[in-house]
Fold this protein.
Amino acid sequence: MKKEELFAKLRANTHDQFDMPDMHVQALKYADTLQQFIAMTKSSGGKAIRLKRDADLNVAVAEAYPDAKVIASNLPGIKADRNPDLVEDARDLNGTDVGVIRGEIGVAENACIWIPQTMKEKAVCFISENLVILLDEADVVDNMHEAYARIKMTDYGFGTFISGPSKTADIEQALVMGAQAARSVTVFLLS
Amino acid sequence: MSTLHAKRAREFLKDPAKITHHDQTFWGMRMSRDKMVTQIPEWEELRDKASEIKRHTITHLADYLEEFSDHLEKNGVHVLWARDAKEFNQMVLKILTDHHVKKMVKSKSMMTEECGMNDFLKARGIDVVETDLGERILQLMHLKPAHIVVPAIHITRQQVAHTFEEKGMSQEEGNDDPTYLTRCARNSLRSEFLEAGAGMTGCNFGVAKTGDVVVCTNEGNADMATSMPKLHIVAMGLEKVIPDYASLAFFQRLLCRSATGQPTTTYTSHFRKPRPGGEMYVILIDNGRSDFIANPDHWETLKCIRCGACMNTCPVYRRSTGYSYSFFIPGPIGIDLGMLKDPKANSGNVSACSLCLSCDEVCPVHVNPGSQIYLWRQQLDHFGTANSEKKLMSWGMARVYNNYFMYDTALKMAPLLNHVPEAIIGNPKWSPWCVGHKMPVFVRKPFHVIEKDLEKEYGKESTTKL
């Protein structure tokens, strides 16, 4: 089908046209945004750990996941066995125990963390059995309106909000963590 | 006078324990949704504005589609326009053949259900693997979705265990623990993700201003399906486009809270470009939508964001299951969409509604599915699908209710019926109304006569005050 043909038909078939509403909304704000974010992270099945900015992150990762053998990350300062920038193929990241990635915005109302793609293979965000997300405490906002006003896409042209581990309730509504992607998510909140 | 829906529902109702469980499961989802709503003081404002944004977008659809597709193309994404299901299926086949793809992993998409894509590709030697757990279970059992968000919730854990054992995915006989079964599926699907040559997703929202394709999942399967294969195909209905991120914030906040009663889906992923070294195709599908938009009473059905809240709350859906409906999308919104698509084939569904309008109350974008069903019912005679017995009854009732003498006489005579044995007058064969109802006892003095007597005694004005 030609798109011009479709557009002409759509225009001909549209009767009354409506304007956009006033987009301002008095959206929910929290007395303690950070505490709300931490509480929502827990209820989404994730964990939140507060750390000083100069804390040793490698020690923190080892403490959070003592049994982890294979770590994948492209973040400077993170000791990793695999680098999502350097692997030849996304499949090479299969079998990663912990992926360490950086989030840019946290959202208190639903524990979403905006993760723009900053690595060649975004698979590291999903294929890793466990995920550690680094997030600055100062980057936690109250709600999605504020988050969408701020997000910036990288050149890779992919970004995702992640809230807790991958989950499903498709079998008799029993909630199970770790459907197809990360089985656990730990957020390191840096101050 | 039974419709197909009523006949099928009757079969499901033969197992009261199962149907009660079904009812409670979905009512539980409705209650979870309500809990979410109480936590957002601006909830009603979100619904109102989301509805207005959709009204605006749908009535400027060509402009927004143009903006959306321009951005996609600028970002190196191939954009294709499919007139109908047939054209869509052919396009997918061509892309896959050109790229020598034999296996495609896909995340949940009602659009591909609408087009019957899986069967079409399978018949042409392409293996399509559903990766949403619920969809995968149904695919392995050769069943269709019974709900648009939780498609396999009616399947028991024992049935899942049995299916997984049969397919060699579960090695532990009789283990029906949901966590164990989910792990089995995870392991099996992991190899599918690694082997597949293409990944397909649907699209919850297309952002015109940026060209983002936004996909929401809890399992992360859409992300897995697009992180390994180099080829990403998006199947998207025309009506999914919205103006910008500011609009998206409203829909993101409403969608999952309305759907499953969670504050968000785990993943809200934005695809704007092909992945490094890969290719991305977006197929925009009309399949009747450009005609629906012209329907003065029903064009707002196109505002639907497919959350399924209308199904969860619907007393008829909860007690009859998704398989009772003749259209592939069940429940209140499915009744409306089915009527837009093919009124002759789907007219039976409009009876599957008590007009309680609970769906209108929960719809996050004011589609008002129940009010629309009411309007569709007025059209049945026009489509030639009105029930002849009901037509006769309506004609008769109109005669009686419009003529005081006939009405008064009929009610005076009615008590005589009290003497006719229930076996005769209550026989559903003669009186279909008596299915599930008992004949009422007709009173000697009907209400309008009592009212007239009181008026005589106390005067008209004081009677009204009573």
Notes: The longest strand of chain A covers residues 130-136. Residues 3-13 of chain A form the longest helix (11 residues).
